[in-house]
Design goal:
single chain; about 70 residues; alpha+beta
Length: about 70
């Protein structure tokens, strides 16, 4: 079975993740493709120490709204 697994490399803000998920979901619904949202909340493999690595604190309430 074919499906699309897509989303941001790292979730920076709740509204950004929801906007991406909504837009991609609209397209995949239109084309009849099953869609699974994927986004990391922590990216430890950054090449620069001062790069954004993820949301600090309790992210689980945000993830449960989907």
């Amino acid at each position: 079975m074919f499906f699309l697994l897509a989303g941001p490399c790292v979730i920076e803000r709740e509204e950004m993740a929801l906007k991406i998920a909504e837009h991609v979901s609209e397209l995949t619904d239109k084309w009849g493709i099953p869609y699974v949202f994927k986004g990391s909340f922590k990216k430890a493999n950054r090449s620069r120490l001062d790069s954004f690595t993820g949301i600090v604190g309790n992210i689980f309430p945000f993830l449960s709204i989907a």
